[in-house]
């Protein structure tokens, strides 16, 4: 377990798949309630999260009392959105905040944790994408030091819907990996 600014981080295990599904669905419902068309409840099941645990890393964040306040996925490639790339980046996906339990700034702490994980591997960039119709999220990531480096206008959702994503990256060469 890693303690970071009052948040405890641990890698997810198979037994956490149901918890991750609930976090995802809660975040999706919050987005829908606030008019954000991005995630849909039920789009990610336990098999999805177990697969991501095998292919990359899934991290769970909890507060000092042990209440889960969020999670994120860390991938080591993302050919669907970024194409074939040299191994210079880690890809952050599904940054999920449990709004009723998370302390202020928990999303940013999780993002910073992901950046340090990436930097520790010797990779120099953190990458992510966000739906092009979500200016609020784009502003959030830009405020965290990410810059727009491209757009992938034809990403296909699980339901067959085509949508665009903005590609963002952050250089990590000045990041402390302590």
What does this structure look like?
With 178 residues, the chain is α+β, with helices and mostly antiparallel strands. Helix content is 31%, strand content 33%. The chain has helices at residues 17-33, 46-55, 79-82, 106-120, 135-143, and strands at 2-4, 7-11, 57-62, 68-75, 89-97, 125-131, 147-156, 162-171. An eight-stranded mixed β-sheet has the order 1-2-3-4-5-6-8-7. A hairpin with a 5-residue loop joins strand 3 and strand 4. Helix 1 crosses helix 2 (46-55). It is globular, with a radius of gyration of 15 Å. The model has no long low-confidence stretch (mean pLDDT 89).
Structural key phrases:
178 residues; alpha+beta; 8 strands; 31% helix; globular
Helix count equals 5
Q: Which descriptor suits the 3D outline?
A: globular
What's the end-to-end separation, in Å? Answer: 15 Å
Helix/strand/pairing class, anyone? alpha+beta
- How would a textbook summarize the main sheet? 8 strands, mixed
Number of strands: 8
